[in-house]
Amino acid sequence: MKRILNLEGAINLRELGGYPTKDGTTIKYNKLLRSGDISNLTGKSLSYLKNYGLRYVVDFRSNSEQQTWADKTADFYKIYSDPVYPLKGNGDKLAGIINHGDYSYLGMIYQSVVLDQHGQQAYKILFDLLLNNDQEHQALLFHCAAGKDRTGIGALLVLKALGVDDETITRDYLLTNLMYENRQTIEATLNNENGDQDINQMNMTKGDLDDITSVFKAIEHYYGTFDNYLDKALGIDKTKLNKLKAIYTE
């Protein structure tokens, strides 16, 4: 199976199946997709996604982004609006306490997102929908604009919950940088002159290893373990975690 799905009208659309876990299982194919903008999907691409089994689309973009570039609608999937921004602001303070400027621009933002009450609520909705996606031959796609930051954090949380090791999670995150080789297309599609300039800057910035490391550090600092973060921040206790693994790994 291909990791990067070059479907017409999609940005940075990727398969998350096939990754090994520490439990000796593998993430199932045709269950999980991560993506950037999907507002320009063609009929051919929609046909592919219908055959793939897509049923759930989770949109992490802001309300204004969703209005400007509305997701392509189809009768075989339902779109769930789940904006990660605007944050409440409490995550910024927590990230600042542990860093003192040690991390990159994106790294600090990522820490703020995973520690922020609103950011946590957005990813809690994702995990709730992941638990609903429990039927055979049905898949869930989550996305933002570039498929790098809000989606990257979502992929990190999901993959780590399913038992994928940190090195593999980091490699998956850095695959996004391949997308930036076609800079002209990215800027034309994602740079909204009238939109949130912070989001624009994030969309235009490549990711690096420190960005992911910063998330692991923030969670460990405030929650001790990742399982504790899942439970306390996202409402995924041991029973729900076992259900997630049953749905998405084999």
Automatic annotation (TrEMBL):
Database matches in Pfam families: Y_phosphatase3
Any one GO molecular function term: phosphoprotein phosphatase activity
First and last residue of the signal peptide: none
Domain of life, per lineage: Bacteria
InterPro entries: Prot-tyrosine_phosphatase-like, Tyr/Ser_Pase_IphP-type, Tyr_Pase_AS
SUPFAM superfamilies from the UniProt entry: (Phosphotyrosine protein) phosphatases II
PANTHER family on file: TYROSINE SPECIFIC PROTEIN PHOSPHATASES DOMAIN-CONTAINING PROTEIN, TYROSINE-PROTEIN PHOSPHATASE
Family statement: Belongs to the protein-tyrosine phosphatase family.
Protein name as catalogued: Protein tyrosine phosphatase
